[in-house]
Amino acid sequence: MQRVVTLPERKAAEAARRRAAVEALLPALAAYARAHGGRFLLFGSAARGTMKYDSDVDLLLDFPAEAQTDAWGFAERACWDRGLEPDILPYGGCKPAFLDHVAPDLKVPA
Hints:
By secondary structure, the chain is of the alpha+beta class. The protein has a domain at 38-110: Beta Polymerase, domain 2 (2-Layer Sandwich). The protein has four helices and three strands. It has helices at 7-36, 45-48, 65-81, 96-102; strands at 39-43, 57-62, 86-90. The protein has a three-stranded mixed β-sheet. Helix 1 packs antiparallel against helix 3 (65-81).
């Protein structure tokens, strides 16, 4: 008889998969940023390492205006390729209060 996998077990497994996927994502983001003169800033549960089974990947893009669209597309594809849902914002479009709120969690992939 096959063992029944409970909902809490499935949720825990998915959360662990997402955390591992973020770890695999970071070097790709760092390499792209170095090559294109910008940076990605990870924040939220992905930056804290506390992702749940339904967490997305919160990213701020800090790239020159002419490189921003391509960087956005790269970040989306890189997340999707790893089974992650991105939530992307342009750094320059964020209000200071929001940046202050997320500052404690910011992680720049290196």
